[in-house]
Amino acid sequence: MDNMAGELRDNRGRGDAEWSFPAIHPEGRKFGIGAVGISLLFLLIGWGFIGWPLLVLSAGVFAFFRDPERVVPQGDRIVVAPADGLVSLIAQVPPPPELQGSDGDGAPGLGAEPVTRISIFMSVFDVHINRAPIAGTVKRIVYIPGAFMNADLDKASEENERQHILIERGDGTRIGFTQIAGLVARRIVPFIKPGDTVAAGQRVGLIRFGSRVDVYLPAGTDSSVLLGQSVIAGETILAETGKHGLLEGVSQ
After folding, report:
1. Containing structural domain, residue 208
2. What residue ranges are annotated as transmembrane (predicted)?
């Protein structure tokens, strides 16, 4: 499990801040090193027309699996973005059936009534490490095989390969979110299991090569982000539980 402790920073200047190259997640190192090895092999045999493009591609692979540190805002009602990317859909929909009702052990899930769903589309240029939207206990993880259509489409929530996760906060608030594979993505990699305790913003998994994450807010909670807004996993506040009302923005 990811270390839940970290350096405290605030809006009054406490803590240290400096720029550094982001780390590469171990899941991606084997892909990057493999790509470098193949490109060097082609360069050694004099096939530079293949070797040099592959070397550039290997740099892209390392960049795809970058894992930067994030400063996670703290608060009892805050829901942070679980993924980097573009807010591509905001809609009132029922939660997925896999997250509704109690599980086999009687643990409660989400209701069947429509709630606000925020969909975050991750392009191949975004960081693909996903993070917990709230602190709490992982109550449910349900993997479902499926298709690999464009993750930007609304029906991808029901037809693509996906993994549902349910987290329950200490006060009983439950939030579900779904990792959805896209056109290029071919594997959803979890870092957690049911029963784990996670901190808000903790790394919980990744999806390889372009995908989407849906977040299902509790009833009576509206989005604090706008359609078309770019969000950062673990840092952008998606919502505050119990807070609702219309927010408007102007693209410019």
Report:
1. 78-240
2. 38-65
User: Residues 178, 88: one domain?
Assistant: yes
62 within some domain: yes
133 and 88 belong to one structural domain: yes
CB atoms within 10 A of CB 46: 8
160 and 54 within one domain = no
Nearest partner of 117 among 229, 227, 194, judged by Cα: 227
Strands (E), 47-153: 66-67, 78-80, 85-93, 115-122, 129-131, 136-144
Give yes or no: 119 in active site: no
* Options 211, 223, 224, 230, the catalytic residue: 211
Question: Is residue 2 in a domain?
Answer: no
CATH code at position 175: 2.70.70
Last residue of a domain, one of 15, 44, 67: 67
Q: Which of 5, 1, 57 is nearest to 32 (CA)?
A: 57
Q: Is the pTM of this model over 0.90?
A: no
Average pLDDT value over all residues in the chain: 88
Q: Is the pLDDT of residue 4 over 70?
A: no
Q: Identity (one letter) of the amino acid at 182?
A: G
CB 210 within 8 A of CB 183: yes
Question: Residue 33 — φ and ψ, nearest 5°?
Answer: -65, -40
Residue 115 near residue 217, CB atoms below 8 Å? yes
What tens digit of pLDDT does each residue of 202-231 get? 999 988 766 899 999 999 999 999 999 999
